[in-house]
Design brief:
heterodimer, A: mainly alpha, B: five-stranded mixed barrel, 6 strands
């Protein structure tokens, strides 16, 4: 935290710059797709959001593992602070995916393996948030949420490989696959810059939220000490 | 053995059990999670006629016949074809050579009456100019096996 605090304003500035650059590239400078024409621009928000949904969950799972085995208090707080951010990105991926599905596939929603497994991920995020605050003792809530997070991690590989294991309406991976990306460089670069911008947003929010949580813990301890007299 | 090692072993064992359970569940559900059937599975008789199912494949070039709102076309997976008839509005991406998923009923002659047609788009993205140039120079989709 001693290093994170002075870095935060610069990090926020870098995030905004990266986001503006990425949005300019993806909305104005990048070419229209040969099949989807301008509608393809939804991809530049949808795909980074979906990556973040999986990335943040993986970070939470690692933090929960550290918290459960080594009882590191900062790891528990990191997992707790990440959950709402991850839920927001998952929601964003579901909504933009739905808006993209209507013009391209002809439907807002189908119950194929990819879409259903991402919806389950969204519910796991919500359950994690609910469970964290379901106990009077915050430490017990975080412990229970850590176990839920580790159990729920089984869903992450299912989401990633759902499009290869089963017939789905969702198309297979374009970027992270064997044999290199099947997406043209003019469209890949804006996508990667947007992905970087989303990672930076997460980092900024995570630092702020962890700082808040540490301060809240300190307030709780002080009030408890005063109550004891 | 320290408490940390014990916790580590308990978690590793639980993770192993959980992964095994998930794998077994998915093995059991393998056919149910499938979103659509292909033409080969239809011809092999894996699907009973009269049941509501989804089938998917590529629209055969030159097979699309439109008469007002009525459309008939064939889909293929490279080895088998299935004829589909449909009444309604097709999605924007519907075209010959495009992957589609249709929901409807298979009749006794293994022809399909669709009540809904969805377009499936592939994982390739490229600018329209590049696609036009590739088509013009004759290098279109030369990397893919037919």
């Amino acid at each position: 935290m001693a290093i994170a605090n002075p870095c935060l304003p610069w990090l926020a500035l870098l995030t905004v710059a990266c986001l503006i650059w990425g949005l300019y590239l993806s909305l104005f400078a990048s070419p229209a797709d040969y099949q989807q024409s301008e509608t393809v621009r939804i991809m530049y928000v949808h795909v980074p959001s979906a990556w973040m949904a999986l990335f943040i969950y993986s970070v939470m799972a690692i933090a929960s593992l550290v918290a459960v085995i080594w009882r590191h208090p900062l790891a528990e707080i990191a997992a707790q602070a990440s959950a709402p951010i991850g839920a927001a990105f998952t929601f964003c991926a579901l909504v933009t995916g739905s808006l993209w599905g209507k013009p391209m596939w002809g439907t807002w929603w189908v119950w194929d393996a990819r879409l259903t497994s991402v919806l389950i991920l969204f519910f796991i995020y919500l359950a994690h948030m609910a469970l964290t605050s379901a106990f009077d003792d915050p430490a017990r809530g975080r412990r229970a949420a850590a176990i839920l997070c580790l159990v729920g991690f089984v869903n992450v590989p299912i989401i990633k490989f759902s499009v290869e294991w089963w017939n789905t309406l969702h198309q297979p991976a374009s970027v992270l696959k064997l044999g290199g990306p099947s997406i043209h460089a003019d469209m890949l670069w804006p996508l990667l810059i947007m992905a970087l911008a989303f990672k930076l947003i997460y980092l900024c929010l995570l630092i702020v939220r962890m700082r808040n949580e540490l301060m809240a813990a300190r307030v709780r301890n002080l009030t408890a000490a005063r109550a004891r007299g | 053995m320290g408490r940390k090692q014990r916790r580590l072993i308990i978690i590793a064992l639980s993770a192993l059990c959980l992964a095994a359970a998930a794998a077994l569940v998915m093995l059991a559900f393998r056919d149910n999670i499938v979103f659509f059937f292909g033409p080969t599975e239809i011809k092999e008789g894996k699907v009973q006629p009269g049941k509501r199912i989804k089938i998917g494949g590529l629209v055969v070039e030159g097979s699309v016949v439109k008469a007002g709102e009525k459309v008939s076309f064939s889909i293929t997976d490279g080895s088998e074809n299935v004829d589909i008839s449909y009444v309604g509005i097709l999605p924007d991406l519907f075209r010959e050579g495009q992957g589609i998923v249709a929901e409807g009923v298979l009749n006794q002659n293994l022809a399909f009456t669709a009540s809904e047609v969805l377009a499936k788009h592939d994982e390739n993205y490229m600018p329209s100019e590049v696609a036009d140039a590739l088509k013009k120079s004759g290098h279109w989709k030369e990397g893919e096996e037919q």
